[in-house]
Automatic annotation (TrEMBL):
<keyword id="KW-0597">Phosphoprotein</keyword>
<feature type="domain" description="HTH LytTR-type">
    <location>
        <begin position="142"/>
        <end position="239"/>
    </location>
</feature>
<protein>
    <submittedName>
        <fullName>Two component transcriptional regulator, LytTR family</fullName>
    </submittedName>
</protein>
<dbReference type="InterPro" id="IPR001789">
    <property type="entry name" value="Sig_transdc_resp-reg_receiver"/>
</dbReference>
<feature type="domain" description="Response regulatory">
    <location>
        <begin position="7"/>
        <end position="122"/>
    </location>
</feature>
<dbReference type="InterPro" id="IPR011006">
    <property type="entry name" value="CheY-like_superfamily"/>
</dbReference>
<dbReference type="InterPro" id="IPR046947">
    <property type="entry name" value="LytR-like"/>
</dbReference>
<dbReference type="GO" id="GO:0003677">
    <property type="term" value="F:DNA binding"/>
</dbReference>
<dbReference type="InterPro" id="IPR007492">
    <property type="entry name" value="LytTR_DNA-bd_dom"/>
</dbReference>
<feature type="modified residue" description="4-aspartylphosphate">
    <location>
        <position position="57"/>
    </location>
</feature>
<dbReference type="GO" id="GO:0000156">
    <property type="term" value="F:phosphorelay response regulator activity"/>
</dbReference>
<dbReference type="Pfam" id="PF00072">
    <property type="entry name" value="Response_reg"/>
</dbReference>
<dbReference type="Pfam" id="PF04397">
    <property type="entry name" value="LytTR"/>
</dbReference>
Length: 239
């Protein structure tokens, strides 16, 4: 294991099993987040802090199961995950295989099973990251929580982002506003290259820029401050 302990998110709707996994993780040097009992809790946990790896029960209770969670992890969070499984039906197993999990843990399992699966999964994931030379391929949307629901925001609909302390406001061309708890720097890593930082507190989708003045950017219905530190880099996008 690396010098800093790896962080693990356990997604398991049976509390006794979840607690047992957490104790096993802690005993072998991993840091475990508060277990998530369902899809929504898992998304909320990852939005607060991204783990290094997730352990997911395939058969979660609720409308969305562990396979649904794995699909969104692949498209948006890009971390390795291990499936927990027992007697899943054939259709669910076929769906699970399509998500390409790092490993499967068959219930009941031992502490050594968990440790071995995690070590191999993280090692293989680290090796793949070192070998990647192609540009990152981004999915064309994000999932953002608003109230008790998760909303799908297409990248092309985002006009600009505004940072306020520990929160980030996302404004779309439909004039919808969403607030997430994260930094502007971290969120820009999830977005494609047509998003540019223009100020300490602002980033814009350059496709919506109508005019660039000396100290501001004009967007449809909005004027955004432009810092001289970012102006030169921004202009490179326009040849």
């Amino acid at each position: 294991m690396p010098n800093s302990p790896r962080k693990v998110l356990v997604v398991e709707d049976e509390i006794i099993i979840a607690d047992s996994i957490v104790k096993s993780l802690n005993s072998v040097g991993y840091i475990s987040f508060e277990p998530a009992l369902n899809y929504s809790q898992a998304i909320e946990s990852m939005e607060k802090e991204l783990p290094d790896i997730a352990i997911i029960d395939i058969q979660l209770s609720g409308v969305k199961d562990g396979v649904d969670l794995a699909e969104i992890i692949n498209s948006q969070y890009r971390i390795p995950f291990i499936f927990l499984t027992s007697n899943s039906d054939q259709n669910t197993l076929e769906r699970a295989k399509q998500t390409k999990p790092s490993a499967y843990l068959l219930k009941p399992f031992t502490k050594q099973d968990i440790y071995t699966s995690l070590e191999i999964a993280l090692y293989n994931f680290d090796q793949k990251k070192e070998q990647i030379t192609e540009p990152t391929v981004y999915e064309p949307y994000l999932l953002v929580k608003k109230g008790t629901s998760y909303h799908k925001i297409v990248f092309d609909d985002i006009v600009f982002l505004k940072s306020e302390h520990v929160y980030l406001e996302i404004v779309t061309r439909q004039n919808q506003k969403y607030v997430v708890r994260t930094s502007l720097t971290d969120y820009l890593k999830k977005l494609p290259s047509n998003f540019a930082r223009v100020h300490r507190s602002y980033a814009v989708n350059i496709r919506f820029i109508e005019k660039i003045n000396s100290n501001e950017i004009v967007l449809p219905e909005y004027s955004i401050p432009l810092s001289k530190d970012y102006r030169k880099e921004l202009l490179k996008n326009f040849g």
